[in-house]
Amino acid sequence: MSIYGANPEQLEHLGTTLKRQVEAINAVMSTVSSVLSGTTWTGPARDQFEADWNGSFRSALTRLNDAFDAAGQDCVLRTQELRRVMGAR
Q: How far apart (Å, rounded) are the C-alpha atoms in residues 30 and 40?
């Protein structure tokens, strides 16, 4: 027999962990942008990397942030609902 449900504490921990990753990814984007802007490097390789960084790389990281934030929020809301249904505070 299969049982469906979740452990509220574990689900809440997952949610907060996912939401914390947003900060980590923002830090990566900030660090790379800062170091790149301070790096003496000219030529087509720099131009290509910078175009990729400012285009597809940052875009992918932003989408990842949005997904982590949404999934984390969903876990937190589900935890609250589970606790309400279970009569816990």
A: 18
- d(CA 22, CA 3) in angstroms, rounded, equals 32
pLDDT tens-digit series, residues 10-27:
999 999 999 999 999 999
Q: What is the domain extent for residue 15?
A: 8-86
**pTM for this structure?**
0.82
Closest CA to 77 of 30, 12, 6, 17: 12
> Domains in the chain: how many in total?
1
Contact (CB, 8 A) for 9 and 85:
no
Q: Strand (E) positions, the chain?
A: none
